[in-house]
Amino acid sequence: MGSGLKLVISLVTRQDLRFARELFRHHRDKEEPEYPEFVPTIRLFAQAREAAGTGSAVVSGSTVEEVLRNAVMQFGSGLEAVIALSKVWVNGEEVPPTHVVGDKDEVAVLPPVSGGM
Fold it and tell me: Does residue 100 surpass a pLDDT of 90?
């Protein structure tokens, strides 16, 4: 055999074309997914705990961003200022604000810590 190009011809049936067309329409017309609302636990440390007046609470939201927004609505703008300077972790790992959370997740607000000897 030489090193020439091989031409492969496949037979496509009308049924295959209909299936592909329907699949394309399904994905094209599909709306953005809606996340159900969950109620994870938010843990607040140091200044965040002081601003909210509690170390933990159950706050609704399906993403980290929603949980934090709802926590600010519940506990006030003092917490918002602390969150702006804080790291946010879910279940012990740093995550982006768009991270999806569920009922069993723990969202932790970790403000910067300073100290010395």
Answer: yes
